[in-house]
Amino acid sequence: MKPVSLASIRRRFVLLGFVVIVLVSVSVFFFSFLRLSSDYHVEGERFLGDAAGNLDERFLTTEVFLKALDIEDVDGPTLDAMKVSELVLCADDGTILEVLRGQALLGQTFPPRLLSGRWTPSSHLSLPASPRLVLSVRKNDRWLVAGFESRTFFSGFMGKRETDGSLLLVNDDGMVLASWGKDISTVGGMLPVFLVTPRAGEGLWGGTTLRSLSVNMGMGLHLVLVYPKSAVLIQATKTSIVWAAVLFGAMIPLLLFFGRTLYAITEVFLRSARNLSNMADDIGSAENPLEAMPMMVSSLESFRVDDAPFEEYRRLLGAFERMMDVITEQSESLGSLYEEATAMELELRENNDELTHLNNNLADLMNLSRGVVSSASLDATATVMVSNLKKCFSCEFAGLIAIVEGSPFLWGHEGVVPTDMSEDSMMDLMSRFVDQEDPEVSFESGRTRIYAPVRFMGRLAGFVVLIRSGKGDGRAIVEVLERFVLPLGGIFQAHELVREVRSSFHYLATRMQTLTESYHEETGSHLIRVGEYSALVAEHLGMSSEYVEDLRIYSQLHDIGKLKVPHGILSKPGPLTDEEFDEMRRHPDYAVDILGDSEWLEMARQIATTHHEKWDGSGYPRGMKGGDIPLCGRIVALADIYDALRGERGYKSAFSHEKTWDIILHGDGRVMPEHFDPAILEIFRIHHGVFADIYDKIKD
């Protein structure tokens, strides 16, 4: 590299500083411009979201009003207050049976799309220049159809927004149904589709470039915010220029100060560099550092510069001088230390090789153990262990084989399971290691296999299996595994005991279920179906196999509390009195007394006490709401309702799957969609056919 003078470096630094200031100012301008433009867009999105919420509330309030309206006693002032322009009663084929308000004619027929139970833009009840919003609701096997004139319906919808734009309600074709703000288009006019369809659009209309933000309200309606692009760009440009100019003016004085300081520092550096160069020549002529020390002390005199411009520089020279005085006084001791250090370096290198090997083994053990203690269950512990084993030793496959009741099975694994790891091969492996203590390393088909036995109190409890590509040397892995498998025996034994206990509680729950079946009208088939519905939902929610199996068993105890409800109330054919109904509603609390406080029955208690709670908080016994209700209770709530609707009861006949599906998803007054967790309701909507298959397969 060609040498460069210090003066040239100073000039380059000053020039570079000026260029940086210019670039920073320009960057501030562009970033400020982009930020202000984005802020205007974000503010528009926020405003549009609030407007959409207000509009949704207006639609919902009107829909609730029509559903509650008594058509036998239509109140004119009430219809005026709700801004109903037309109100007719239709048959299922759309024929008008009765005109309650407006100019519609008896016998006139509405198209099927107006009888959908949803909001629909239409000119069927009006002139095309004055479009209507039409809403239909079911009333006693007939359709109640209401028309709303958009200007009247949306009057006083919201206050004026401080903007150059306009807020418009349009249909899919771009027809304007309502308008707020600047008059970009009149009611009944048409808005270009490119401003309506996308969420954010831009285009030329009426000689002006417009930007738009659109929210699809459903039902063929869109809420659109339209504003001129030029207004945003002009305001952002002005503000960005001001910020860039202020920054540029503030940084120029800093550049001047930097230049002066750099000059002073470089001058001191030049003098020190010359003195250090002379010292280096003197020291370089010495045979070793000890002989060079007197030369260093002598050369120190050249650093005593009385006109040094910095106080810190003078203190540095004084400290350097004092340090050299101390070194000179202790030169003999330093020589001995130098020789000692040379000998110690050799010894440390030898010890370091051994420590590195031990440290690698320790690191491997720590990686293998990481996450085991914090695992939520023994199955999760197995998953963590095989994942760490595969990662730590760069294996293609890592597996844990546990032995339960004399039979081996693959408890956990990471990677593709080898085709030869069958039940027979695992039995052969168990037979081979009954009396063999040491791990086994073999090379087959281009892969190294390592089998490490795990023992508990001298009994073979399982194996760790590792498979790596290539031959390699498995001794280092075996050395780590021999230490790692020592505590694994207890974990394997705990897994076997947990399986036994869990199986016992499942058996206990099954026996308790027969008590529930024999005490009241709920059949064993009903309880089994509820378990199958619940397991299906849990699987689609991504729950573990252990959770799914517990839910399948314990959901069958959801009504066990009814064992403490008098049998006369349970079997009463007619309606219950208020006192009898209150007693019936106590059965979730009775379940706690029956099930006790065992941790193994925690899910059963949660199901029994919360399966009558509802997502909107209208359930019992505690009125729990939303996510406060345990997941198992939310799942069983829907499963129990579905099977109860399908089956025949003393107070009702059996419903078909189609009617049950409609009641759960759309409501019938007693059962409403808002009673259920939306995620669980969506699973039912998608997989309701499987519910029907389960019901047909498990008949009473």
DSSP summary, beta strand count: 15
Tell me roughly what share of residues is in helical segments.
Answer: 40-55%
Q: Looking at the structure, what is the overall shape?
A: flat
Unreliable spans are 353-359, 503-509
Largest sheet: 5 strands, antiparallel
The neighbouring-strand order within the major sheet is 2-1-5-4-3
What's the pLDDT, averaged over the residues?
Answer: 75
Question: Pairing-aware structural class of the strands and helices?
Answer: alpha+beta
Strand content: 15-25%
Radius of gyration: 42 Å
Distance between the termini: 93 Å
- What is the count of helical runs? 20
In short:
The protein has helices at 6-68, 76-81, 150-153, 229-284, 289-299, 311-329, 331-369, 378-392, 423-432, 475-484, 488-519, 524-540, 545-554, 567-570, 578-584, 587-595, 602-610, 631-646, 657-666, 678-697; strands spanning 86-90, 96-101, 119-122, 132-139, 142-149, 166-171, 176-181, 200-205, 208-218, 221-228, 397-404, 407-414, 440-444, 447-456, 459-469. The chain is of the alpha+beta class and 700 residues long.
Write a structural description.
The chain has 700 residues and is an alpha+beta fold. Helix content is 52%, strand content 16%. The protein is built from 20 helices and 15 strands. The chain has helices at 6-68, 76-81, 150-153, 229-284, 289-299, 311-329, 331-369, 378-392, 423-432, 475-484, 488-519, 524-540, 545-554, 567-570, 578-584, 587-595, 602-610, 631-646, 657-666, 678-697; strands at residues 86-90, 96-101, 119-122, 132-139, 142-149, 166-171, 176-181, 200-205, 208-218, 221-228, 397-404, 407-414, 440-444, 447-456, 459-469. The strands form three sheets. It has a five-stranded antiparallel β-sheet with strand order 2-1-5-4-3. The protein has a five-stranded antiparallel β-sheet with strand order 7-6-10-9-8. Strands 12-11-15-14-13 form a five-stranded antiparallel β-sheet, with helices on both faces. β13 and β14 (447-456) form a beta hairpin. 26% of the residues are buried. Mean pLDDT is 75; it is low at 353-359 and 503-509.
